[in-house]
Amino acid sequence: MFVxxxxxxxxxxxxxxxxxxxxxxxxxxxxxxxxxxxxxxxxAEPDETPDDSEPAPTAPDxxxxxxxxxxxxxxxxxxxxxxxxxxxxxxxxxxxxTNDGTGFDTTGAVAPGxxxxxxxxxxxxxxxxxxxxxxxxxxxxxxxxxxxxxxxxTMRPGLLFHDGEPVDGEAVRANxxxxxxxxxxxxxxxxxxxxxxxxxxxxxxxxxxxWAALPYGLVGQPGWMVSPSTIGTNExxxxxxxxxxxxxxxxxxxxxxxxPNYWRADEGLPYLxxxxxxxxxxxxxxxxxxxxxxxxxxxxxxxxxxLDFLDDDETDVWxxxxxxxxxxxxxxxxxxxxxDLRVRQAMAxxxxxxxxxxxxxxxxxxxxxxxxxxSDRWYTENNYPQFDPAAAQALxxxxxxxxxxxxxELSIEPNASTIEVAEVMMSFLTDxxxxxxxxxxxxxxSALTAILDDFQAFSWFQFGSPDPDSDYxxxxxxGGFLNWTNLVxxxxxxxxxxxxxxxxxxxRKAGYAQFLQALGDEVPMIWVDHLNGVEAAVTxxxxxxxxxxxxxxxxxxxxxxxxxxxxxWSGVWIEQ
Amino acid sequence: MLxxxxxxxxxxxxxxxxxxxxxxxLDQAPGDPAERFAGLNATPEVIEGxxxxxxxxxSLIERYLRWLGNAVRFDFGDSIVTRGFSSWDLIRxxxxxxxxxxxxxxxxxxxxxxxxxxxxxxxxxxxxxxASSSTAFGLLALPAFVLGIYMSFIFGVKLxxxxxxxxxxxxxxxxxxxxxxxxxxxxxxxxxxLVAVYLRLLRSDLIETLQEDYVMLAQARGLSERRIMWRHVxxxxxxxxxxxxxxxxxGLIGGAFIIEVLFAINGMxxxxxxxxxxxxxxxxxxxxxxxxxAYVMMNFLVDVLYSILDPRIRHAAR
Lengths: 576, 318
What we know:
- The structure holds two protein chains of two kinds.
- By secondary structure, chain A is an alpha+beta fold.
- Chain A contains 16 helices and 21 strands.
- In chain A, the strands form five sheets. Chain A has a seven-stranded mixed beta sheet, sandwiched between helices.
- Chain A is globular, with a radius of gyration of 24 Å.
- Chain B has helices at 2-28, 33-38, 44-53, 60-71, 87-122, 127-141, 144-158, 176-210, 213-220, 225-233, 239-262, 268-277, 281-309, 311-317.
- Chain B contains 14 helices and no strands.
- Chain B folds into two domains: 2-71, no CATH class; 89-309, MetI-like fold (Orthogonal Bundle).
- In chain B, helix 7 packs across helix 8 (176-210), helix 8 runs antiparallel to helix 11 and helix 12 (268-277) packs antiparallel against helix 13.
- The interface between A and B is large, with 48 and 43 residues.
């Protein structure tokens, strides 16, 4: 801790002095130097090998080796015998979030900042156990018919929403129907023909085709239940979870307080009295607030902060694995030049993913060839084009002889670090004769812009759901405008359908292998990396339950930190 | 009286120009707010209905006048991004925090700069004069975002005296101690840049005034040094200082934007940055209108203050 703190102090003093020197010397023509450094780094020649262009890392800055991509341990709590710790009820914490929420309407596109708050306000119909298999959660049971063309969801008796209304069959029907009817997100339930409340506690979903993996879809947004009178309401979330929304101030944060009528209150849940979610955009501010003890934990630390904290015994770092996002570029396959497979393949060949990972993620992430992480049980290898500038050049030459120069625009949200990565990727492309330009769009406008097909290429973070069926709609030709790249591929459709319709794990895996192979062959996306290494949470050692499994209603352990957002807030407690 | 009316008229003119230019620029932005508000798959009829509801029909002048008519009733329209909240709801949440930050910063800056300037002017070249001048130059060289990080690190992280972020800020009436504790570092950070400006300005004017005959007369009559400085020297030396305070209100708004990010204050700065990024134009227009009113009013008050500080201005105006 001493070494880490001293280094941090020195870094702040030195950086501050450099900036001060640059700014105070306003007469000097050299004053912009301080701000030119990152730009110069971004413009580094991509054909230099990372070893040549990067300073040799010193020992303390080398990434801590992750034993495998599934590890959930950290320096600190990973060594503690969790079973020996007895949870203490009471207390409140402040937890830092990176993104502001834009509201809680469960029938619309929900911003990541909102989802993190909703996690404390909500219990989904279905949960995931430690092996990422679905388990009933808020629902008591989910029962299919023989050919999986109909599912009956039966609720637990006596459940109440935060406003005291019953969570009955009619309430579940109303929520599912509103989701299905939504023009923005309803495609995810396009296969559902009808939703019927069959009795006081049961709802039946009749489907147009077999869907064995349907419960996985109810882990996320479709499975969020809110009081029927508040469906479609954006400013509040009247759910069923362990905490009740006390206030939400856009741009600032949200405060949630213990739900005294929580359906698992007899288990002593939740432990905390309240959680203050505070939106902290700036990484320096976030870290200083944490080190000062003003926040007891936060998500999405900087990659360099992760390295620092992994060395720090007084800080716990929880590295999310299951379902971490991927960074990629979407290519609109219905618009030139990406309607030509050769251009897409050339793009993939031209970009050195490992260079990006070394330069911008401190080597903490894993190169991606598709939406599934190599540690995922559904993962299989494919023939996605690897870094090969000569192959890229040949494909470009072939295309240009026929159609002329390759030019495109990359739509991107105005995030400095993402733009920096995109600029380096652009320089790789320039080396093989592909001329790309960056087009900034409004913050939070990615989904809408992609839905409207108003792009050629798009800088994107998504996917990696624990079960691939949750991403079905984004790749399948029936996904409508949620099929982001508009690619229609019989192999992709067949593979995803096999994964959706089969129960047998081997059959499902074969389906997803077909899907991944087709994705590698068709290249509708330029994959960069799986962000499991950097989608993390940082906590004080006194705060427990973040990153560790929660307990499902049947007593089994739940999958922690899926997408870095699904903390089991009901089981979080703090030493007083 | 006439001069006040003239100045008031000028201020109203400035308000119209600024709000119209803002309105015009926002109108030129790509995209149709009605379509965004309506969402996907909305029928043309629904979009038309929303356009009428949002007041987007008619020529630019018509829409501007309609917006202005609503604005005087504090009806700036709904936020397009944060549905369920009006623009005024968001401003009402943010404005008090920014105002508090600015007022505290001004009070701190004046409270530090005036005594230091008096002490420096009384004995030019003394230790206090040299130390305060050097510190002032040092502070001028440090931009607010660097100073803020330093302050936060030293007083928040290392010493733990003050919180590094403003979280669940209680009202001044509800819990003044916690409120002041949370706002201390941000206000001081904002104030320290001002101290340097005020100190240098006031010191040189004080030294100049000290050379006036009436000051020597006062000294010859045996008035105490303290009385001469505070009653006979400070007031006539305050004209440039007052101008600087007035003009710095605008600078403070800019500085407050940075401080609000550094200390996670949900103020007008964060609101306007976020609204611009999210293209929430109703909120942007509302914030610009309110800041314009605040700025022109502040300038008007400074003008009024001039004539109180120096009766020659009042007489000249007649």
